[in-house]
Amino acid sequence: MIHKIIDKKDLCPGNYLIEVEASNVAQRFQPGQFVIIRIDEKGERIPLTVADFNTQKGTITLIFQVVGKSTKQLGILNVGDVVLDCVGPLGNPSEIKKFGRVICVGGGTGIACIYPLIRALADTGNEVISVIGARTASLLILENEITALGSRTCVATDDGSKGHHGFVTDVLMNLLDEYRNSGGVDRVIAIGPPVMMKAVADITKPRQIKTIVSLNSVMLDGTGMCGSCRVFIDGEMKLACIDGPEFDAHKVNFEDLISRLEMFKEKESEAINYYSSKAGVKK
Questions:
Q1: Do residues 21 and 11 touch, judged by C-beta distance below 8 A?
Q2: Phi, psi at residue 222, to the nearest 5°?
Q3: Block means of pLDDT (10 residues each) for the chain, length 283 residues?
Q4: Domain that holds residue 27
Q5: Residue 199 maps to a domain
Q6: What is the rounded CA–CA span in Å between residue 277 and residue 274?
Q7: Concatenated DSSP letters of 199-257
Q8: Which of 90, 116, 132 is a domain's end point?
Q9: Which of 89, 108, 110, 206 would disulfide-bridge 191, Cβ 3.0–4.6 Å?
Q10: Of the residues 55, 90, 125, which one is the last residue of a structural domain?
Q11: Whole-model pTM?
Q12: DSSP assignment letter at 137
């Protein structure tokens, strides 16, 4: 079954939104889950978190950043083009219930992953405070959509071009201090680069605030057979695709996760350079 692209938007440099026909996924999707897509018969399998879904149209919305050959190829596709495979929903859904006051931290394309969680948590009656960040204002995504959900939204940019001049972790620390004498914070959820998630965990652990992260480990089949997405949680090996993707941030071995993600950087660079030269597209 092929999956037609019915909408595409350039969100910011190197970041795209596509709406894809995938009725089976749309009908069963829950926040926190992901899909694995394959562009064509020779394509690699790419895990992507579902940012939104529409059961009436039978579509899902995917937001991705061009980081390698396959995402480069995906970014070139336009409305009317098709994706060969879209498998899912995969992974365990997020725990959604009334926790109280929840801070959701999203960095980079992690903002797209945390967006459905913010909406679901707000719909469940939580007081949600959203913290989103990027290197610069032009790379911020979904700010208007998150603000429209009615949650308090705080922005941080590394270069100070919008919001707080600094990191999302700076904003998080300020918020934790602000709410300390007014009931505190019941839960923190962070999705973004592993270094950012580790920094969030380092902040919340001594404060004993339950913190959840979604891990984007190296993944191939997404069903637990290959073992490539292994992560270490409290010293025990887990598979992000079937045991996660969400885990207790205070138990994650981030050093191992970051090291594994660095393993294929050189090969990714070679692949995208080769594809760009063959396809005649800009790197």
A1: no
A2: 75, 10
A3: 90 89 92 91 87 92 86 90 90 94 94 93 95 93 90 93 95 95 94 94 96 86 80 93 93 90 70 65 54
A4: 3-90
A5: yes
A6: 5
A7: HHHHHHTTTT--EEEE-----SSSSSSS-TTEEEETTEEEEHHHH-SEEEGGGB-HHHH
A8: 90
A9: 110
A10: 90
A11: 0.88
A12: G
